[in-house]
Amino acid sequence: MNAAADFARDRIAVTALAVLALILFAAFFAPFLSPQNPYDLAQLDLLDSKLAPGARAGAGFTYWLGTDDQGRDMLSGIFYGLRTSLAVGAISTLVALALGMAIGLVAAYAGGWVDALIMRLVDLQLSFPSILIALVLLAVAGQGVDKVVIALVVVQWAYYARTVRGTALVEKHKEYVDAARVMAFGAPRIVFRHILPNVLPPLIVVATVQVAHAIALEATLSFLGLGMPITEPSLGLLISNGFAHLISGRYWISFFPGIALLITIVAINLVGDRLRDVLNPRLASHYSA
Amino acid sequence: MLGFALRRLIQSVLVLFVMSALVFAGVYAIGNPVYILVSPQADQAEIARATAALGLDRPLWEQYWTFVAGAVGGELGKSFVWNTPAVQLILERMPATLELALSAMAIAVALGIPLGLLAGLRPDSWTGRTIMAGSILGFSLPTFWVGLMLIMLFSVELGWLPTSGRGPTTEVLGVPLSVTGWEGLRHVLLPAANLALFQLSLLIRLTRAGTREALAQDYVRYARAKGLAMERVMRVHVLKNIAIPIVTVTGLEFGSLIAFAVVTETIFAWPGMGKLLIDSINVLDRPVIVAYLLVVVAIFVAINLLVDLLYGALDPRVRLAGARA
Amino acid sequence: MTGNSVLKQVIVALAAWAACTLHAAELRIGLSADVTTMDPHFIAAQPNLTAQHHVFESLVHVDERGRSIPLLATWRTPDPLTWEFNLRKGVKFHDGTGLTAEDVVYSLERPLAITGSPGGFATYVKPIVAKQIVDRYTVRLKTAAPYGALLQDLAEVMIVSKKAATGATGADFDGGKAALGTGPYKLVKFSRGDRIELARNEEYWGGRLPWDKVTLRILPSDPVRTAALLAGDVDAIEHVPSADLAKLRARAGLKLAQAVSWRTILLHLDQGRDQPPGVLSKAGKPLERNPFKDARVRRALSKAINRRLIVERVMEGLGLPAGNVVSPSVFGHDPAVKADAYDPEGAKKLLAEAGYPDGFQLTLATPNNRYINDEQVAQAVAQMFSRVGIAAKVEAMPLSVYFGKARGGAFGVTLLGWGTLAADFALRSLAATADPGKGYGAWNWGGYANAGLDALVARALGTVDPAQREALARNASALAARELPFIPLHYQVVTWAMKSNLSYAARTDEFTFAHHFKPQ
What we know:
The complex is a heterotrimer.
Chain A: H1 2-8, H2 11-28, H3 30-33, E1 55-56, E2 62-63, H4 74-110, H5 112-127, H6 130-141, H7 145-172, H8 175-182, H9 187-223, H10 235-243, H11 252-279
Antiparallel strand pairs in A: 1-2
Chain B: H1 2-30, H2 34-37, H3 44-53, H4 60-72, H5 86-121, H6 126-140, H7 143-157, E1 170-172, E2 175-177, H8 182-216, H9 218-225, H10 230-268, H11 273-282, H12 286-314
Antiparallel strand pairs in B: 1-2
Helix pairs in contact in B: 1-12, 5-6, 5-8, 5-10, 5-12, 6-8, 7-8, 7-10, 8-10, 10-11, 10-12, 11-12
Chain C: H1 3-23, E1 26-31, H2 46-55, E2 57-58, E3 60-62, E4 68-70, E5 73-79, E6 82-87, H3 101-113, H4 122-125, E7 128-135, E8 138-143, H5 150-154, E9 158-159, H6 162-165, H7 170-175, E10 185-191, E11 195-200, E12 213-218, H8 222-230, E13 236-237, H9 245-250, E14 254-269, H10 295-304, H11 307-314, E15 319-321, H12 344-353, E16 361-367, H13 374-387, E17 391-397, H14 399-407, E18 413-419, H15 423-430, H16 451-461, H17 466-483, E19 486-499, E20 502-504, E21 517-519
Parallel strand pairs in C: 1-12, 1-13, 16-17, 16-18
Antiparallel strand pairs in C: 2-9, 3-4, 5-6, 6-8, 7-8, 10-11, 11-12, 13-19, 14-18, 14-19, 15-19, 20-21
């Protein structure tokens, strides 16, 4: 509880956490909050396309944030888009975390040539910017939610692997692990009972921030036309669709999704920052890009 | 030292080889570029002729073998659409991208370090908080969105700066550069500012953290207590303390800048190699895609090596025998 | 009127005058796509042809409406297998040498000899089986069978100087050494991906042109192109995006030029196979037979589409509802054929008659970076299908992926855009029974087969007399409209925007030529 109280001392972080909770709520309950299912083409009406915020729908409700060029309610679109963006960000980060952790632990535990090989691979992967790797992967594999998630996992795993290995190596040589080994505990037990609990806190901090990074990357990829399918737009794709309408003054098509994306990423970053301060004040205050 | 560089080089060549094979096969799997490139009237015979003319009718392994054989001689194939060798095409576009990336880096360093120092010296002041809030925004704003907002505001609404493209170039040592003239500077400002956003935020945070850490250290407190002027404390102790991480990150982030230039170049119609990559992906111009990746990876390898060497020069404690830990 | 507003007007007038005198001699145009080389026989892509037409010219040209007109030569057909071209006298290449029959024959042979290029021009010169130089200014071309479309083909092939082009590499053309044509502008500088600088050809046979300097800027991003015009960085832009149309129209100091384009947007329905991909019962089970083989189903789908609404809302006016395979001014358009009116009840009735009272489901595949608002059009069509009981999904992808997959038969319903200058041509590619030997049906993704249509198309293409050929081509258009081998959606409307002191004769073939811009 100490950590929670510590966290609560920063008002900005608490506000960010509240905002994040609200966003998660909206994303989770999108089908109940949205006046329209923006992914169901049968529910859209071309007659209601490109309406300004506050216009009345043919179906009776109000388009509080206007509509896009298909007659898609922007508010519903943002709720569903949040859902897609957050899901893609969270799932890819979790998978990358699990994968990176496993690989990092193997490297730390096995040592020798296995460790050397894995770490060279990690070094190489980290020396390439994420956007380039994702870009090439998606260009070759094609579009789709699954492919975006795979690309984001490929981009992220190495970072966790390195962090885990580093921490695990330090822990490995500490007395309690030696003690455990002397007591002839099996490797899995040592890993799960002793090493993991020590490795996790810094990882959680990194992962939080990485979720924001993944969401931004997904948005960029969708903007470049290599991300999500058009009929199920994420926030990035909504913004990208509105790109064409900015000069004509139909700002709402890309402005509101842009704001939603901005708030989400800022909130996650603020929470991540505070988590880092609370969980590990010694951790350097920069993340890898 | 030499062994370290050599090992790095061998590793890199291996990576280039594996990557070229993967990308080669991947692009091959997407489809036949001739379908996109031929004129609508073309009949089946013409499509077959064009496919054969580009060598795409041969088995994949044979195409790859031809490519590798050429690559050993420094020839990465001729572009399917640009009537030019792929390497030449990329080298031709490279100055524009490097110019953009270096301008962005200059903006990030010129603004990031002073702002970071300021925020680090007065972390709780109104200024410090504003700077930090700004840096969070810089991290979070989607680049492509900011790019368009910048065009809307500074070019369309205010009319201060050109919307897009690169200014007139002059040859400097055989390299065409646009930043040598006033018009060129006007053109590069918006895209470079857009591209610099992320690195600027990163540098602010890095500098701030480094400054705070340095000021908290005993020897700095001692120096200040001794009555040394703040300016000297800053110069000797703080700057020394933050120099290494800043050099490292600036160097490594230069690779990111080149990669993220893909987005900025697309928005600002900047004729660099990132835009060339996107265009080439769109028409499945395989020689150019593969050549771009090979050239860019080579740049990254060079940058990493350089950073490692600089790192060693700045901090003699770092042994170059091992890789970065 | 206050003194202030008078003063304002004076300033505006002065500024306009200053702008005129400053820019009267220079024209800067924003192009929508990259020009990849200045070799006019390397790749038959419209953006390249746009730039190359400034430097090079062909024997035959097309006017704004898409009809063949003489350019470097006039022609006659002494017999159905022979075309005689008489070259214009006194035409000079940019290096000062005169245009002769030798250059013409060389230029018509070069597309077949060029290596390592995706080409496309070979199609245009392949029908010619013999070339004969009669004298310095006369060339006779022979075809194996009567071939009426030769003029349209020759309009695509530019004439290069034999002396300059022999042995020239791509770099020679791009660098300007070999890019010596007879055209109104000389190539000054070709900066790939950025701009093409041109200077007036002072000895142009067609008379003096208003612009002594022309810059073609490459601005593929739509908002960026619009913004460049709004900011005054360019004087005119091509392919005004639909979203910015209203803004540009309302803006003082700018004006638009529009024409119905030659490009028809259509839906191919897979009628060749028994189980087209994505076409399933509502429960997701395979259907007993392929519904698209039934002409009533094809008609029902056509009636379900509210073309007017698509044109108004999705295209924002940049379209015209289509019933023909080619747009109104194009050769072989049948004016008697009207676009199917929106009739959801009629569509439901036809579906019920055909045995699908509850409809079925389909997946509509579309490119997302090729035609004006392509993926938005596809979504709108899917919306409309769902209103008559057909559950439609949309699968959008970049052209690079799309064409390969569509040709491989990965989709049941596909969106395609088609731009040609004759209906018989279009139908040969789109609806004739696929026959690689004859070159028929190369883009007939629907697998439609109708011997009657094939014969009609063959007769039209084999007719040399333009009037007779057009009558036959019209019949073919009408037959296609009755049978619906594919469903035409709309003809695109192409738009240029420019400063109001300029004018442009909008072209149905979508080409942007600096020499057709006139100061006012």
